[in-house]
Hints:
- The protein is α+β, with helices and mostly antiparallel strands.
- The chain has helices spanning 40-56, 63-82, 93-105, 135-154, 173-189; strands at 12-15, 19-22, 28-33, 111-118, 122-129, 166-169, 198-200.
- The strands form two sheets. Strands 6-3-5-4-7 form a five-stranded antiparallel β-sheet, with helices on both faces. The chain has a two-stranded antiparallel ribbon with strand order 1-2.
Amino acid sequence: MLQAFDPEAEIEVRRRNLPHWRQAGATYIVTFRLGDSLPQAKLEELRAERLQWLKRYPPPRSEETLVAYQCFRSNKIEEYLAAGYGACWLKQAILADQVANALLFFDGQRYALGDFVVMPNHVHALVRPLEGFELSDILHSWKSFTANQINRIVGRKGKLWQDESFDHIVRDEHYLLAYQHYIADNPRMANLREGEYRMRACGPDFWRGRKGP
Protein backbone atom coordinates (compact mmCIF):
# COMPACT_ATOMS: atom_id res chain seq x y z
CA MET A 1 0.00 0.00 0.00
CA LEU A 2 1.01 3.63 -0.35
CA GLN A 3 3.25 4.74 2.48
CA ALA A 4 2.57 8.42 3.04
CA PHE A 5 5.47 10.83 3.45
CA ASP A 6 6.42 10.92 7.13
CA PRO A 7 7.62 14.38 8.23
CA GLU A 8 9.00 12.85 11.45
CA ALA A 9 11.06 10.15 9.72
CA GLU A 10 14.64 10.52 8.58
CA ILE A 11 15.06 12.25 5.21
CA GLU A 12 18.11 12.30 3.02
CA VAL A 13 18.48 15.24 0.64
CA ARG A 14 20.83 14.72 -2.30
CA ARG A 15 21.73 17.58 -4.61
CA ARG A 16 23.06 17.96 -8.10
CA ASN A 17 21.36 20.88 -9.85
CA LEU A 18 18.20 20.21 -7.82
CA PRO A 19 17.46 18.69 -4.40
CA HIS A 20 16.43 15.01 -4.41
CA TRP A 21 14.60 13.91 -1.27
CA ARG A 22 14.91 10.29 -0.16
CA GLN A 23 12.91 8.45 2.51
CA ALA A 24 12.75 4.72 3.15
CA GLY A 25 9.51 3.19 1.89
CA ALA A 26 8.43 6.32 0.03
CA THR A 27 6.72 6.39 -3.36
CA TYR A 28 8.05 8.82 -5.97
CA ILE A 29 6.90 10.38 -9.19
CA VAL A 30 9.90 10.42 -11.50
CA THR A 31 10.52 12.10 -14.85
CA PHE A 32 13.39 11.42 -17.22
CA ARG A 33 13.79 12.87 -20.69
CA LEU A 34 15.70 12.43 -23.92
CA GLY A 35 18.88 14.46 -24.24
CA ASP A 36 17.59 16.61 -27.11
CA SER A 37 14.13 17.23 -25.63
CA LEU A 38 14.94 20.82 -24.65
CA PRO A 39 16.42 23.13 -27.33
CA GLN A 40 19.36 25.35 -26.43
CA ALA A 41 17.20 28.48 -26.28
CA LYS A 42 14.94 26.92 -23.64
CA LEU A 43 17.94 25.69 -21.67
CA GLU A 44 19.34 29.24 -21.69
CA GLU A 45 16.02 30.52 -20.35
CA LEU A 46 16.15 27.98 -17.53
CA ARG A 47 19.76 28.92 -16.71
CA ALA A 48 18.89 32.62 -16.64
CA GLU A 49 15.91 31.98 -14.35
CA ARG A 50 18.13 29.88 -12.07
CA LEU A 51 20.70 32.69 -11.80
CA GLN A 52 17.95 35.18 -10.98
CA TRP A 53 16.60 32.82 -8.32
CA LEU A 54 20.05 32.36 -6.76
CA LYS A 55 20.45 36.12 -6.48
CA ARG A 56 16.97 36.58 -5.06
CA TYR A 57 17.39 33.82 -2.47
CA PRO A 58 21.00 33.90 -1.21
CA PRO A 59 22.21 31.25 1.27
CA PRO A 60 21.19 29.96 3.69
CA ARG A 61 18.07 28.63 1.94
CA SER A 62 15.33 26.71 3.70
CA GLU A 63 14.15 23.36 2.39
CA GLU A 64 10.76 24.97 1.71
CA THR A 65 12.43 27.52 -0.56
CA LEU A 66 14.36 24.81 -2.39
CA VAL A 67 11.25 22.68 -2.90
CA ALA A 68 9.28 25.68 -4.17
CA TYR A 69 11.98 26.34 -6.74
CA GLN A 70 12.07 22.69 -7.72
CA CYS A 71 8.31 22.74 -8.38
CA PHE A 72 8.56 25.95 -10.40
CA ARG A 73 11.41 24.61 -12.50
CA SER A 74 9.68 21.26 -13.03
CA ASN A 75 6.51 22.98 -14.24
CA LYS A 76 8.50 25.02 -16.76
CA ILE A 77 10.25 21.94 -18.06
CA GLU A 78 6.96 20.05 -18.33
CA GLU A 79 5.59 22.87 -20.49
CA TYR A 80 8.58 22.63 -22.82
CA LEU A 81 8.46 18.83 -22.98
CA ALA A 82 4.80 18.83 -24.00
CA ALA A 83 5.74 21.02 -26.97
CA GLY A 84 7.52 17.99 -28.49
CA TYR A 85 11.04 19.31 -29.11
CA GLY A 86 13.83 17.04 -30.34
CA ALA A 87 13.86 13.84 -32.39
CA CYS A 88 11.07 12.36 -30.22
CA TRP A 89 12.38 8.82 -30.73
CA LEU A 90 9.75 7.37 -28.41
CA LYS A 91 6.94 8.30 -30.79
CA GLN A 92 7.95 5.14 -32.65
CA ALA A 93 6.02 2.19 -31.22
CA ILE A 94 8.97 -0.21 -31.27
CA LEU A 95 11.09 2.22 -29.24
CA ALA A 96 8.33 3.17 -26.80
CA ASP A 97 7.78 -0.55 -26.19
CA GLN A 98 11.44 -0.93 -25.22
CA VAL A 99 10.97 1.66 -22.49
CA ALA A 100 7.61 0.33 -21.27
CA ASN A 101 8.95 -3.22 -21.09
CA ALA A 102 12.02 -2.07 -19.17
CA LEU A 103 9.84 -0.28 -16.61
CA LEU A 104 7.75 -3.41 -16.06
CA PHE A 105 10.61 -5.93 -16.02
CA PHE A 106 11.55 -5.78 -12.32
CA ASP A 107 8.14 -4.67 -11.04
CA GLY A 108 7.53 -6.53 -7.80
CA GLN A 109 11.18 -7.59 -7.48
CA ARG A 110 13.13 -4.35 -7.13
CA TYR A 111 10.26 -1.85 -6.95
CA ALA A 112 6.51 -1.45 -7.01
CA LEU A 113 5.56 0.29 -10.24
CA GLY A 114 2.32 2.21 -10.57
CA ASP A 115 1.06 4.49 -13.31
CA PHE A 116 3.43 5.50 -16.08
CA VAL A 117 3.39 7.13 -19.49
CA VAL A 118 6.05 6.93 -22.19
CA MET A 119 5.82 10.17 -24.17
CA PRO A 120 7.70 10.95 -27.41
CA ASN A 121 10.57 12.65 -25.57
CA HIS A 122 10.15 11.85 -21.87
CA VAL A 123 8.76 9.41 -19.32
CA HIS A 124 6.71 9.84 -16.12
CA ALA A 125 6.30 7.01 -13.61
CA LEU A 126 5.09 6.37 -10.07
CA VAL A 127 7.48 3.98 -8.35
CA ARG A 128 8.35 2.77 -4.85
CA PRO A 129 11.77 1.12 -4.40
CA LEU A 130 11.59 -2.09 -2.39
CA GLU A 131 13.87 -2.75 0.56
CA GLY A 132 17.50 -2.99 -0.49
CA PHE A 133 17.10 -1.00 -3.72
CA GLU A 134 17.83 2.68 -4.37
CA LEU A 135 15.78 4.94 -6.63
CA SER A 136 18.94 6.27 -8.28
CA ASP A 137 20.02 2.74 -9.19
CA ILE A 138 16.58 1.90 -10.58
CA LEU A 139 16.59 5.01 -12.76
CA HIS A 140 20.13 4.30 -13.95
CA SER A 141 19.16 0.75 -14.89
CA TRP A 142 16.10 1.91 -16.86
CA LYS A 143 18.04 4.56 -18.74
CA SER A 144 21.17 2.52 -19.40
CA PHE A 145 19.33 -0.55 -20.70
CA THR A 146 16.87 1.37 -22.89
CA ALA A 147 19.61 3.62 -24.31
CA ASN A 148 21.56 0.56 -25.46
CA GLN A 149 18.46 -1.08 -26.93
CA ILE A 150 17.20 2.02 -28.73
CA ASN A 151 20.62 2.97 -30.08
CA ARG A 152 21.01 -0.55 -31.46
CA ILE A 153 17.58 -0.52 -33.13
CA VAL A 154 17.95 2.88 -34.80
CA GLY A 155 21.65 2.57 -35.55
CA ARG A 156 22.87 5.50 -33.50
CA LYS A 157 25.60 5.99 -30.88
CA GLY A 158 26.07 8.26 -27.94
CA LYS A 159 24.03 9.48 -25.00
CA LEU A 160 20.27 9.11 -25.34
CA TRP A 161 18.88 10.37 -22.03
CA GLN A 162 19.53 13.58 -20.15
CA ASP A 163 21.78 12.76 -17.17
CA GLU A 164 19.67 14.16 -14.34
CA SER A 165 16.13 12.99 -13.65
CA PHE A 166 13.41 14.73 -11.66
CA ASP A 167 11.71 13.11 -8.68
CA HIS A 168 9.24 14.11 -5.99
CA ILE A 169 8.09 12.15 -2.94
CA VAL A 170 4.35 11.40 -3.05
CA ARG A 171 3.30 12.91 0.26
CA ASP A 172 -0.15 11.37 0.66
CA GLU A 173 -3.11 9.89 -1.25
CA HIS A 174 -4.29 13.35 -2.32
CA TYR A 175 -0.99 13.92 -4.12
CA LEU A 176 -1.03 10.37 -5.46
CA LEU A 177 -4.39 10.95 -7.13
CA ALA A 178 -3.20 14.28 -8.56
CA TYR A 179 -0.09 12.62 -10.03
CA GLN A 180 -2.18 9.79 -11.49
CA HIS A 181 -4.45 12.32 -13.19
CA TYR A 182 -1.44 14.24 -14.46
CA ILE A 183 0.16 11.13 -15.97
CA ALA A 184 -3.12 10.11 -17.63
CA ASP A 185 -3.59 13.61 -19.05
CA ASN A 186 -0.10 13.92 -20.56
CA PRO A 187 -1.00 12.59 -24.05
CA ARG A 188 -3.96 14.96 -24.33
CA MET A 189 -1.82 17.95 -23.31
CA ALA A 190 0.65 17.05 -26.07
CA ASN A 191 -2.11 16.37 -28.65
CA LEU A 192 -0.95 12.78 -29.16
CA ARG A 193 -2.97 10.14 -30.95
CA GLU A 194 -3.44 6.52 -29.92
CA GLY A 195 -0.25 4.60 -30.64
CA GLU A 196 2.04 7.62 -30.19
CA TYR A 197 2.58 6.87 -26.48
CA ARG A 198 2.51 3.99 -24.00
CA MET A 199 0.56 4.20 -20.76
CA ARG A 200 -0.28 2.19 -17.69
CA ALA A 201 -3.17 3.67 -15.69
CA CYS A 202 -3.67 1.84 -12.40
CA GLY A 203 -6.51 3.79 -10.80
CA PRO A 204 -6.87 5.25 -7.29
CA ASP A 205 -7.01 1.89 -5.47
CA PHE A 206 -3.82 0.46 -6.93
CA TRP A 207 -1.46 1.15 -4.04
CA ARG A 208 -3.92 -0.15 -1.46
CA GLY A 209 -3.48 -3.58 -2.97
CA ARG A 210 0.34 -3.57 -3.00
CA LYS A 211 2.24 -5.08 -0.12
CA GLY A 212 4.83 -2.95 1.57
CA PRO A 213 8.58 -3.53 1.18
